[in-house]
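Today's session is about reading a structure prediction critically. Students often jump straight to the picture, but the first step is always the sequence itself: look for stretches that repeat, for charged clusters, for runs of hydrophobic residues. Only then move on to the predicted structure, which in these notes is written as discrete structure tokens rather than atom positions. Here is the chain we will use throughout the hour.
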Amino acid sequence: MPRDDGWLASRWNRLSGPRRIGGVDLARGLAVLGMFAAHLLWITGSFDWSRPDTWITVVEGRSSILFATLAGVSIGLMTGGRSPLPAARMTTARGRLAVRAGLLWVLGILLIATGVPVYVILPAYALMFLLALPLTSLPARVLLPLAAALAVVMPFVQVFLDALPLWTSAAGYPVSMALGWHYPFTTWIAFVVAGLGAARAGVTRLKVQVWLVTVGALLAAVAYGADAVSGARPEAEAASFLGALWTARPHSTGLLEVVGSGGFALAVLGACLLLCRTVVRWIVLPLRAVGAMPLSAYTLQLVVWAAIAAVTLDRVGDLGGFRDLQPFWPLTIATVILCTVWALLIGRGPLETVLDAASRFAVPGDRRPGGQADERGRTSPADRLVE
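Below is the predicted structure for this chain, in token form.
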């Protein structure tokens, strides 16, 4: 165990200290690496418990939904945790989150411009940040029912939104990229609100962690079970309103996917929080390091992808050609090692540092007594929970 003072100890405490919620970092690390797998591996067929070779399909759609749910948790922790910040400090926190959202959108557009053939989640992520800001003063008893209502109602609306003529017009593609419409914020905001509600309920509480696993697993079982029993098929989605609604297919934004994958995300979050109450917390430290700098890890993967594809393939957008290079394990292992070393020797991830500095520069904290920062620039405990 590191000493209580010194450079390395300060970095260790940033990653594993009492103000860091290891289970949230672990869940974020799994979400990031799950998106790596969805991007880089050939995934065919559907999930089947009896066939381990199909288990990798669990990353499709669910990794990005977990990422969105954890965005809500982060917003909740950054705005007070169980108790929303007082009005003045909440205004500051919201302003900083809005700045971060703007920067995330710009970064997302830049990543799209690399030509890497993936749907970049950051533009949608940024819009969901903005939509969540007015909700940050609400308690868990309001947020969680609101998330449930959105999860049930919005898939009905989404069917009509996805059928708008806009998407087949000349402007459809650039607009969909700018909005991150593969992850439609109109429905995916339900996941962010659920994560925000979990943070307000208190994700460090054992009761809440057990509740997340239990309720999340139940929602997933009901939705995926209904999908299996009803025999929903992809071809039915284009045939009727009911077909487009009643599906759990990844990235369909159907009712069964929203409920099932949303429940899956809550269950994974709860399981990670429970695991990090045990010695497993230290075993999974490299995954927690990835989760402590998810934006840097996600961005680095796409930039490295673009660079390798530009050198080795005829075009950057050749998805099949890049997957045939079998890049998943080299990129994943390198990312885990780099994040772990960076976290222990340097601290906060590079892009996380830039976003934090930019948001604090754009929206200075209240330096009066009880404000966001004191005269020496020390931030409140809530500010240090998630970085």
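Discussion point for the tutorial: The two ends are 23 Å apart (CA to CA).
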